[in-house]
Amino acid sequence: MKDWQSAIKVTASAHSVKEVCQTLHLCRSTYYQYQHQTKPEQFKRRQVLYQQIRRIYFDHRRVYGAPKVHEELLREGYHASLKLVQKLMRHLGLRSIVVKKWRYEHNNYIDQMTYPNLLKQDFKAVKPNQKWAADITYIPTKTDGWCYLATIMDLYSRKIIAHKLSRHMTTELVVNVLNQACETRTVKAGLILHTDLGSQYRSTALETALKQHAIRHSYSKRGYPYDNSVVESFHASFKKEEVYQRTYKDYHEANLAQFSYIEGFYNSRRIISADGYLTPDEKEQLVS
Question: Where is the Integrase catalytic domain (predicted)?
Answer without folding.
Answer: 124-288
